[in-house]
Amino acid sequence: MSLTSISMYCELTKPHFENFQHLITLLKEKSIFFETISISARSDEGKNFEYDSVEDLKILSNDNIYDYNIHISFQDDAKINLMKSANIHKQQFQQLTSEKIEHKMKIEEIMSVLGLNKEIDKEIKYKKNVFIAYRFDDTGQYCADQIATFLRLMGFNVLTGRSYSPQSISNKVKERMDKQDIIIVIHTNGEEITWLTQETLLGSVKKTLIILKQQGANFKPGILNDFEYIEFIDRNIQTTFIPILEGLNELNIKF
Question: For the whole prediction, is pTM greater than 0.85?
Answer without folding.
Answer: no
